[in-house]
Amino acid sequence: MGPSARRVASDFALDALVLAVAAAHVFLAPYAKVEESFNLQATHDVMYHGWDLSAYDHHAFPGVVPRTFIGAIALAAVARPLQAALVFLRVLDSDEARGTKMGAQIAARLALAAATVAALGRMRRVLRDAFGEAVGVAFALIVASQFHLTFYASRTLPNTFALVLTTLAAADWIDARARRAAKARGEKKKDETSSSRVDPRDARAVFLLTASCVIFRCDTALLLAAVGAHMLRARAFSLPGAVNWGARCAAACLSLTVAVDTAMWAPPSAGHPGAFFREDDRSDAREPPPFWPGAEGIMWPEGRVFWFNTYENRSHEWGTSPFHWYFTNALPRALGAWTPLVAFGAAARKEARAVFLVALSFVAAYSFLPHKELRFVFPALPLCDACAAVGAVEAHRRLAGTRERSSARTSASKKSKRANADATRFFARAHSARALPALLIGVVLLLAVAMHAVFAAAAYRNYPGGEAFAATHAAETSREAFREKPTRVHVDVAAAMTGASRFGESVFQDAFVYSKREDLTLEAFQSLPESKAFDVLLSGSDFVPGYEAEAVHEGYAGTRIVWRRLFGFVEAPVWVATRTKPAVWTHRRTAASSNERSVESARASREESSSGEREGSPRAVPDERENRNA
Predict the structure, then answer these.
(1) pLDDT digits (tens, 9 = 90+) for 273-309
(2) Shortest CA distance to 304 belongs to which of 318, 316, 314, 319?
(3) Closest CA to 101 of 165, 34, 46
(4) CA max distance for the chain
(5) DSSP code of 190?
(6) For the chain, counts of helices (H) and of strands (E)
């Protein structure tokens, strides 16, 4: 196998490792939380409703701020053939065999994970060319050992779509910078003509960052500003050239998102009842909630988000954190055991300092926003991992070099008559000098993997609503009356926020009727007429009048340290386990409640019938007057 073949095999193996970790998270936690719901429901609607825009979920549940459909359309275009391929390979069951559309949700998330891993793979190859083969391998191992980057690689957050673009942009920027530095070192005389040209990689990096900002996450403008400032300082762009190229990129991206999202966010046709129930049960549907001002005209989703977060300054309504939270909580949690090596890598290699400073300035600028979440600084994670990879390799090299020099000095001081024995000891010490730094890096890797496992165990407990939704379909499918009439299922806010999605609905159109109405109190369920009563409730309440709880699904409630007695007499912490608490209950309508509704329905029918008979008889006039007065 030649050098090029070995490099291709190495690239494939390292990318496959990261993809395998991300895919494992998809299969172990296939459900999604409320933050992911818009793009997830939009992907479902594109895959299953196509051009029937009036049936889309966002008409009934638009969310606090609008989001673009571009990511969902692209994801659905890839997920549909991927699902067919995985069904053909028997990795997934077909929708008909599964009974729900969860296979399509898994395929969509795998497609997004593959896109994220491809972007990270591009970053790894750039780091390999710029810093050496060892740094590329270290980067892959660091990413695979961390929880947050691999777990969220498949999550349909706007931040994840933006992460793909920002990672590709960062890779192009680092690549262009490394090539300029190598060319400058190799040139004996400055070439003024070549220095005035814009590197295509720099131009592409600006375009990708602009697309991320205009289409998916307006806050990545902070990263664009940091990278752009470095490009101007390095004279990769002239100021007029940067303004010209940036304006052209912004205009192109803005035209795309306005064209697509104005059409997708247009109000449904007149008389559309909303998406609370299927079309065969519109009697209980209500008019869609009011759209925000201007929805009937031009729609630029990220412009609305920017207005919401800056001019209206309403993001603080979802909580605030101190300025230092990203540096003292979010980033150490995401980077894990590799955190100390980030700054060390920047200090050890001057080529990595620009990468570190860009990440640092991006996070520092974002820290001024009171509302903070880890996903907001996703673009900084690959940059920090790049510095950590450089730090790990430099730490290993310097420790090994120090010990080898120490071994050499010790061997040189020996007597000449013991030269052969000294040579043997020298090589043994040199091997030990290289083994100890590798062992230390291995310990850090094992610690990172252990932290990954703890975070994963906690994350898998965050989807009781999805588990309850899946269990409900499995239970109803096994019932004898499954085909006799549709099962009416109500999903409350607690269940909808923790995993229940349209992908989890039955693929058989006449089997279920679903509701996500938020205006019903617990007491209202018992008073609904028979034709509109629900057979099953998925609720965050453990008691609902007229219903009996038949199952409970637990959710994450914190962690606890597991202590064990070691060596028969020493109590020591050995693991961190998750604690759970009841979160979502499955309630089934009781027989007594059903009978009462049936009696009331029959009584109402008899009264209507007798009233009709009395209307045709002269003796019915007094009764009719009494009924009218009543």
Answers:
(1) 443 334 344 334 444 444 444 456 788 999 988 888 8
(2) 314
(3) 46
(4) 137
(5) -
(6) 24, 5
570: three-class secondary structure by DSSP: strand
The token duo for 54 is 């009036």
> Which phi-psi region, left, alpha or beta, contains residue 161 (left: φ > 0; alpha: ψ -120 to 50)?
alpha
3-state secondary structure of 152: helix
Cα separation values, 467 from 109, 291, 425, 471, Å = 17, 32, 61, 6
Cα distance between the two ends of the chain: 94
The secondary structure of 509-569, three-state, reads: CCCEEEECCCCCCHHHHHHCCHHHCCCEEEECCCCCCCEEEEEEEEEEEEEEEEEEEECCC
CB atoms within 10 A of CB 324: 9
Which pLDDT score is estimated for 132?
Answer: 92
Rounded Cα gap, residues 97 and 517, in angstroms: 29
pLDDT, tens only, 152-183: 999 999 999 999 999 999 999 999 999 888 88
Per the CB < 8 A criterion, the answer to whether 259 and 293 are in contact is no
Q: For the purposes of burial, counting CB atoms within 10 Å of the CB of 65, is it exposed (0-12), middle (13-18) or buried (19 or more)? A: middle
Consecutive H or E run containing 420: helix 419-459
| Sign of the dihedral through C-alpha 147, 148, 151, 153 | negative
Token pair 């050496």 in the structure block, residue: 132
Q: How far apart are CA 617 and CA 304, in angstroms?
A: 65
Query: What is the spatial distance between Cα 64 and Cα 367, in angstroms, rounded to a whole number?
Result: 22
What DSSP line would sit under 267-322, residue for residue? PPPTT---SSS-GGGGGG--PPPPPPTTTTS---HHHHHHIIIIIS--GGGG----
CA distance 354 to 346: 8
Residue 342 has pLDDT above 60, yes or no: yes
The sheet carrying 547-566 orders its strands as 512-515, 487-491, 536-539, 570-589, 547-566
List the structure tokens of 589: 């309508």
CA dist list (Å): 62 to 22, 32, 39, 260: 29, 17, 11, 16
Nearest Cα to 263, choosing from 218, 240, 289, 297?
297
**Residue bearing tokens 């109000």:** 267
Query: What is this structure's pTM?
Result: 0.85
CA dihedral 500, 504, 509, 515 (to 10 degrees): 0
Kind and range of the H or E element at 574? strand 570-589
From 335, 436, 326, select the one nearest 388 (Cα to Cα): 335
Q: Are 37 and 73 in contact (CB under 8 A)?
A: no
- Rounded Cα distance between 505 and 514, Å, is 8
Q: 163: helix, coil or strand?
A: helix
pLDDT score, position 429: 54
Q: Which residues contact 205 (CB under 8 A, 6 or more apart)?
A: 169, 170, 172, 173, 176, 227
Distance between CA 346 and CA 391 in Å, rounded?
Answer: 7
Q: Are strands 547-566 and 570-589 parallel, antiparallel or unpaired?
A: antiparallel
Number of other residues whose CB lies within 10 A of the CB of residue 315:
20
In contact, 126 and 175? CB cutoff 8 Å: yes
DSSP for 472-521 reads HHHHHHTSGGGGTSPEEEEE-HHHHHTT--GGGSBSSTTTEEEE--SS--
